[in-house]
Design a protein that fits this description.
The complex is a heterodimer. By secondary structure, chain A is mainly α. Chain A has helices at 8-12, 17-38, 73-93, 98-111, 122-136, 143-149, 154-159, 161-167, 177-196, 202-216, 221-224, 227-242, 247-258, 264-279, 286-300, 303-313, 319-327, and strands spanning 44-45, 52-53. Chain A has a two-stranded antiparallel sheet with strand order 1-2. In chain A, helix 3 (73-93) packs antiparallel against helix 4 and helix 3 (73-93) crosses helix 5. Chain A is elongated, with a radius of gyration of 22 Å. By secondary structure, chain B is an alpha+beta fold. Among the domains of chain B are: 18-102, Phosphorylase Kinase, domain 1 (2-Layer Sandwich); 103-173 and 180-319, Transferase(Phosphotransferase), domain 1 (Orthogonal Bundle), CATH 1.10.510.10. Chain B is 36% helix and 12% strand. In chain B, the strands form three sheets. Chain B has a five-stranded antiparallel beta sheet, with helices on one face. In chain B, a hairpin with a 2-residue loop joins strand 4 and strand 5. The chains are: A mainly alpha, B alpha+beta. At the A-B interface, strand 2, helix 5, helix 7 and helix 8 of A face helix 1, strand 4 and strand 10 of B. Chain B: This is Cyclin-dependent kinase D-1.
């Protein structure tokens, strides 16, 4: 569906930075309050209609007395990036097209704009996002098949489908920069034929830009900018490295053709902002996530906190067991 | 729409049995394989809506219904006066609910309603709205893939809108294959019947051409009973395609050679249609999909700019409510209608049983070639038939036709005559 201009994405899912921060902070605070009040953050979800209810108070919980700490705002951010990268790995393993990968990541980002990772397990939501993306992009993979491929019960995938769709407000069509890159590369071929640069190296440029977009998808940029802006930012960055064309001259030509309301200086600033976000991207490793993941488990099941403390006091023979558990990430 | 961020779950029935705290349920409008469609009042806007309810079973292996998801995703992005509006979408209890604007009837009901006379301007108006809806879809790279009269809904304001996007999909990505098992058979394009899996917007145009033909004749155009029979009927009506007309046809997966039959003139199939109408129709029913007219080009065809101008939607004839259509199927009413409406003055004679039988026979013949123009020609003589209707009633023991029918027909004719004047032209 090649009309981003009239899309729900443009109308409803492109934000200002402060809006994003407000939403993330609100979700984080709500989860922290839930933890203080009920002793756990994990919400109960009705599988059929995706409605949510507060958890039962833990049996031994006294309000306000919890020794379990909620994740911080920054820890949540790290968790989201970690699982978005996992989506890329899962999609690569299944050899799904970039469109499905991008759609799944966007669904994940939109979901956790409204919920905290403490409220719904990101590992499960991630899988449901991939499943829903395959369905919507008409590259259907059964939940069973998907589940087998990643050694997970397929029911986990289906359990969250309705709450995901509801949270997305059923806005299912997503535009990603990959298609925009193809369009700009075609355009650059004409630009090159007009004597502005070597035609043959555009393939290198295209591949480099696609790799750059893969990183870009893990930043907040897809929630802040349009696919066309993201694509041009990726091409600009890749061209800086490869020196294939005179990109400034190309931008001037685009703008003279478009009679754009937006001055080129403002557009270049957006491109720079996007690439700054990519430069600042910190993809956590499994090791980085160990501490955060442990906190997350305690938020969902505080009794595991006591278990953990007991284990600490025991002899080193139990270390291998803990390592094995962590490796399941 | 229930707030997605709402982490509490209130009792949805608390507000006096409103569905999801918003919709006041009404009568059932229809049922299908998907579930039930019922009427409702949107208490937020006061508008009447139609709610499609789709079961979500937790036993199912694949979660939310794929067809429903497809309809939702596309209608969420398609906003046009000639495409049905999806107002809301929400799960409730064990069902997914899709809320649509309410539409009074559909084109199939209109075509079959013998009490409705369609003028050439009326037909032109419906075809124009159908093509506007299609042009919008195709501009957004969406194929409808189920164009047929009962998927073309008509609102209280006379606007025709494309509905049922359960078979629709995005096209335009190179290399993607689609199923060829789309469209109801009578509306299926020849390239689909030959098994093509790589096709484009031409398949919707072919179906729209069949609907255009159906509006002209008031009966379905090519009524095949199998794919082979469908192709046979297409070729009998439009001539067997030659390689020069459609070079690629021999490469289609299920291509079969048919005995050559030359194309009869389209005029013989649609004797009352104007030259412009026939020209547009022939371009919509062109065999080679690459040569077939597009929706946008069709809208620019001189058919729509020549007289008579298309009837303004608000002035189009009003069919009876869908729920009342059943009344038209009572045989004795049809018996009464036939001779009354169709006997020309020169055959005016005292009614006998034999005359009655002739009337029935004439009804059958008219079914084969009715057109708005022909009905219009018959109109002036209609009022002189009132005594006949009394006699018919007396002889066959049926009620005479009520006067309001004649009066409303006269009013309708007068309105349409006014609409045909250039001054009252309906600007596109």
């Amino acid at each position: 569906m090649a009309d981003f201009r009239t899309s729900t994405q443009r109308e409803r899912w492109i934000f200002q930075s402060h809006d994003l921060m407000e939403r993330w902070a609100a979700a984080n605070q709500r989860a922290a309050q839930t933890l203080a009040q009920y002793g756990t953050t994990r919400l109960n979800v009705d599988l059929l209609d995706g409605s949510v209810s507060y958890p039962e108070s833990m049996p031994d919980h006294v309000e306000g007395s919890s020794v379990v700490k909620p994740l911080s705002y920054e820890e949540e951010q790290l968790t989201r990036v970690f699982y978005e990268q996992k989506i890329q790995e899962v999609c690569a393993a299944f050899k799904f097209p970039h469109k499905i990968q991008a759609t799944a990541i966007i669904y994940f980002k939109r979901f956790y704009l409204q919920w905290s990772v403490m409220e719904h397990q990101p590992k499960h939501i991630m899988l449901t996002c991939v499943y829903a993306s395959c369905k919507v992009e008409e590259n259907h993979v059964s939940a069973e098949e998907l589940g087998k491929g990643i050694q997970q019960d397929h029911q986990i995938i289906l359990n969250n489908e309705m709450i995901l769709l509801k949270t997305l407000d059923f806005d299912l069509i997503v535009y990603a920069p990959y298609r925009s890159i193809e369009g700009f590369i075609d355009d650059l071929e004409d630009f090159c034929r007009a004597g502005n640069g070597p035609f043959q190296r555009l393939k290198e440029l295209r591949q480099a830009a696609i790799s750059h977009v893969d990183k870009m998808m893990l930043t907040d940029a897809p929630l802040l900018y349009t696919p066309g802006q993201l694509a041009l930012a990726a091409l600009h960055k890749s061209n800086d490295l490869l020196r294939v064309v005179d990109f400034e001259r190309y931008l001037e030509i685009i703008f003279s053709r478009q009679h754009s309301d937006c001055p080129i200086e403002q557009f270049v600033q957006s491109i720079n902002e996007i690439n700054y976000l990519v430069d600042q991207l910190n993809i956590p490793t499994v090791k980085d996530m160990r501490h955060v993941d442990r906190k997350l488990k305690h938020c969902w099941d505080p009794s595991s906190h006591d278990e953990h403390n007991k284990k600490k006091e025991k002899k080193s023979k139990h270390k291998s067991k803990r390592t094995s558990t962590d490796a399941q990430l | 729409m229930a707030s997605a961020g709402n982490s509490g779950s209130g009792d949805d029935d608390a507000g006096g049995k409103l569905l999801a705290d918003r919709y006041q349920k009404g009568e059932v409008l229809g049922e299908g394989t998907y579930g039930v469609v019922f009427k409702a009042i949107d208490t937020k806007t006061g508008n009447t809506v139609a709610v499609k309810r789709i079961r979500i079973g937790k036993d199912k292996k694949e979660g939310v219904n794929f067809t429903a998801l497809r309809e939702i995703k596309l209608l969420k992005e398609l906003k046009d006066p000639n495409i049905i509006e999806l107002i809301d979408c929400f799960p409730y209890k064990e069902n997914l609910h899709l809320v649509f604007e309410f539409m009074e009837t559909d084109l199939e009901a209109l075509i079959k309603d013998k009490n409705i006379i369609l003028s050439p301007a009326d037909t032109k108006s419906y075809v124009q709205m159908m093509l506007k809806g299609l042009a919008f879809c195709h501009k957004k790279w969406v194929l409808h893939r189920d164009m047929k009269p009962n998927n073309l809904l008509i609102g209280a304001d006379g606007q025709l809108k494309l509905a049922d996007f359960g078979l629709a999909r995005v096209f335009g990505s190179p290399g993607r294959n689609f199923t060829h098992q789309v469209f109801a058979r009578w509306y299926r394009a020849p390239e689909l019947l030959f098994g093509s899996k790589q096709y484009g917007s031409g398949v919707d145009i072919w179906a729209a051409g069949c609907i255009f033909a159906e509006l002209l004749t008031r009966r379905a155009f090519l009524q095949g009973s199998s794919d082979i029979d469908q192709l046979g009927k297409i070729f009998a009506a439009l001539g067997t395609p030659k390689s020069s007309q459609w070079p690629d046809m021999v490469y289609l997966p299920d291509y079969v050679e048919y005995q050559y039959v030359a194309a009869p003139p389209l005029r013989t199939l649609f004797p009352m249609a104007s030259d412009d109408a026939l020209d547009l129709l022939s371009k919509m029913l062109t065999y080679d999909p690459k040569a077939r007219i597009s929706a946008q080009q069709a809208l620019e065809h001189r058919y729509f700019s020549s007289l008579p101008a298309p009837t303004r939607p608000s002035q189009l004839p009003r069919p009876r409510r869908k729920g009342d259509q059943g009344n038209n199927k009572i045989p004795d009413l049809n018996l009464q209608d036939g001779p009354m409406v169709l006997s020309p003055p020169r055959k005016l004679r005292r009614v006998t049983a034999h005359e009655g039988m002739e009337g029935m026979h004439r009804t059958d013949k008219v079914d084969e070639h009715p057109s708005g123009m022909r009905h219009t020609d018959d109109m002036p003589s209609q009022s002189s038939r009132i005594p006949m209707s009394v006699d018919v009633g007396a002889v066959f023991g049926t009620r005479p036709a009520p006067r309001p029918t004649l009066n409303s027909a006269d009013k309708s004719r007068l309105k349409r005559k006014l609409d045909m004047d250039p001054e009252f032209g309906y600007a596109e």
